[in-house]
Amino acid sequence: MKQRLLLVLLLIPFLGFSQSDVDTVSLSSPYHTIHTHLWFLQSDARYDIDKAMKALPEETPKLKQRTIQLKQILDGKGLRVKLSQLPREANYRDSLAKGNIYVLFPNELPEVYVEKVGDIWLYSEETIERIPKLHRQVYPFGTDVLLRLIPHSDNYKFFGLKIWQYIGISLLLFLAWILHFLVTRLFRRIIQRVVRTRFQTL
């Protein structure tokens, strides 16, 4: 763990944020708000959900859950935020929307964006409202449970898929097999009963 933390500290200058950014909660620009949200949800020594939650409005229902789900949506869709490309201007304006907003992935997730509220930047109300639906789309049938059962599984991939995705696929195939088995036996009994009844009436 110490070696991993040391490696992260050594790579800080190349990752798009300075040493002062690492453990600091700041909401002064799109960069700082998104950084606060994602940095403190990393599955290692830096994990601090209380700090990550600052990126969402305090009145958000199920604040802790929504904070985690938002990152899971990005991870599940394979979307990687390039911190070095995020705007650091406190008064950043989107030229198309003509307002103080920043959309993380305009093509893939246009409904997920941060906006300026007073002197700080937060994830928008629209983003908060869409999180449950987006989360269900990315993790159908409650497969997000696997993320809680397999700690740090989001860090490992095999042939392009994550561990929880392989387990989810396996479970779905197993359930499909059980359903097929039950339905087949049920129809077989029904058919046998119908045939037996018809022969008896002849």
Helix content: 40-55%
The end-to-end span amounts to 79 Å
What letter string, H or E per element, gives the SSE order? HHHHEEEHHEEH
Give the strand content: 5-15%
Helices and strands: which structural class? mainly alpha
Number of H/I helices: 7
Largest sheet: 3 strands, antiparallel
Please state the average pLDDT score.
81
Query: Total strand count, please?
Result: 5
How much is the radius of gyration in Å?
A: 24 Å
- Name the poorly predicted regions: 5-20
Shape: elongated
Features:
mainly alpha, 3-stranded antiparallel beta sheet, two-stranded antiparallel sheet, 5 strands, 202 residues, single chain
Write a structural description.
The protein is mainly α and 202 residues long. The protein has helices spanning 2-11, 30-39, 49-52, 63-76, 125-138, 145-149, 163-201, and strands at residues 101-105, 109-117, 120-123, 157-158, 161-162. It is 48% helix and 11% strand. The termini are far apart. It is elongated. The strands form two sheets. A three-stranded antiparallel beta sheet has the order 1-2-3. Strands 4-5 form a two-stranded antiparallel sheet.
